[in-house]
Amino acid sequence: MPDRNATAQPGIAPTARPTEGTMFAALYGELVPHAWRDPAPEHDAYRLFPQRSLAMGRLDDRPGTGEESASGGRTHVAPELWAMNDAGRGHPPAAPAPDLIPWFQVEASALADDGPLPAQPFLRCAQDTTERIGAVRLAAAQVPLPVQGIDASARPPYALLPSMRTPARFGECDPRARVPVKVRIDGGLNPSIPGVAPQFARRVAPPGQNMFANGLGEAVPPEDSLPPPSDDRFWNGPPLHGKTLSSESAEWSCDAVGWLAATVADSAAHVGIRTPALLTVVRA
């Protein structure tokens, strides 16, 4: 367990069993703590997040060495779970606004062949946990995607992009909830992302879905990207090779950002990206 008295920072987490990779969610904006809330450490983000994960049926809370049962046989690891690594607040002093509010780091279990990266429930869990701490005004969300762990060739024909089976979930959103967003996909040291941006646009926003109805086709001038709150080795950084695109989301929520993150991760794998990618979604 990390030293909770030290300044926490996302890092590379060792693992004793095969996993999809390490994920973290960095939420930026404003957080006003609830006046009635107990500020004691046992009620911080690090303690609350695994409780919410467990309630969602997503927490793999076995010890890292627990690969074998008592009888010596291999245990089954359910796909699309995660093990808690760390959580915290704060950002390097030189980082620009907006402020970083709680971030969360987990180790994702290996994926099912027809299942998406669990970015959507992960972001949903992050938002639920943060809202237990205080009132949230979300300005941006950032998710490094462990694309290197996705085997696009193993996807069955009905689930080439598994998250594309669920965009109808956002089909009944209030039209007034639609918001313009800026979506930046960065490959860090991998220079491939800018060249495949048009393919991302076609895969992430195909005709017939309402989630990102206007697509990702309009490129906007690059801006200074939000630096992730982690060591560059964590995701193949620093952010050097990316593309910032404009779009419109059916709603502004971690649920929507998580859906986009899962779709971008699979899309990246399908266009040949084999290294982690950093997704940053900013409310425009």
Global outline: globular
Strand order of the largest sheet: 2-3-1-4-8-5-7-6
- Low-pLDDT ranges: 1-6, 65-76
Helical residue percent? Answer: 10-25%
Give me the number of helical elements: 4
Major β-sheet profile = 8 strands, antiparallel
Mean pLDDT over the full residue set = 81
Bin the strand percentage: 15-25%
Order of helices and strands: EHEEHEEHEEHE
Overall domain count: 1
Q: Let me know the number of strands.
A: 8
Q: What Rg is obtained from the alpha carbons, in whole angstroms? A: 18 Å
Helix-and-strand structural type: alpha+beta
Terminus-to-terminus distance: 38 Å
Region (Disordered): 217-242
Protein described:
The chain is of the alpha+beta class. It has one domain. Helix content is 19%, strand content 24%. It is built from four helices and eight strands; from the N terminus they run βαββαββαββαβ. It has an eight-stranded antiparallel β-sheet with strand order 2-3-1-4-8-5-7-6, covered by helices on one side. Helix 2 packs antiparallel against helix 4. It starts with 18 loop residues before the first strand and ends with a strand. The N terminus is likely disordered.
